[in-house]
Amino acid sequence: MEKIWLEKSYPPGVPFEINPDKYPSLVAMFTKYTTQYSDQTAFINMGSQISYAELAQQATAFAAYLQQDLGLEKGDKFAIMVPNTLQYPIALFGGLLAGLTVVNVNPLYT
User: Fold this and answer.
1) Distance of alpha carbon 81 from alpha carbon 13, whole angstroms
2) In Å, how far are 18, 41, 44 from 7, measured between CA atoms?
3) What would the 3-class secondary structure string for 58-84 be?
4) 22: burial class by Cβ within 10 Å (0-12, 13-18, 19+)?
5) Is the model's pLDDT at 1 over the cut of 70?
6) 40-78 residue pLDDT tens
7) Which alpha helices (H) appear in the chain, and where do they start and end?
């Protein structure tokens, strides 16, 4: 099946799919690529951007906050109700780094 919507969404050379067996977890993939591409832009939103290094630093700090200040433990559910902003990947990867089960909640459903 031809997936023309993918061809228009990704620059040349970017694969349309990721092999899910390549990494043991999303955290492993996150760690590899935030290290490998640390100086490159990870996300751009509303005129602001964040590098992979900044993403890793902020997600790690947020993970520490979730564990140390809020007392969340591995396996606890962590709901994220945020629109598509730069805060979302920080919250997502922070939750995953803390070992939490991330539950996405769409803010449009309120």
Assistant:
1) 33
2) 15, 21, 20
3) HHHHHHHHHHHHCCCCCCCEEEECCCC
4) exposed
5) no
6) 999 999 999 999 999 999 999 999 999 999 999 999 999
7) 4-9, 26-36, 52-64, 87-97
For the chain, what are the domain ranges?
A: 23-109
Q: What does DSSP say about strands 48-51 and 41-45: parallel, antiparallel, or unpaired?
A: antiparallel
* pTM (2 d.p.): 0.84
In words, the CATH class of domain 23-109 is: alpha beta
Q: How many residues does the chain have?
A: 110
Instruction: Return the bridge partners of 43, or none.
Output: 50
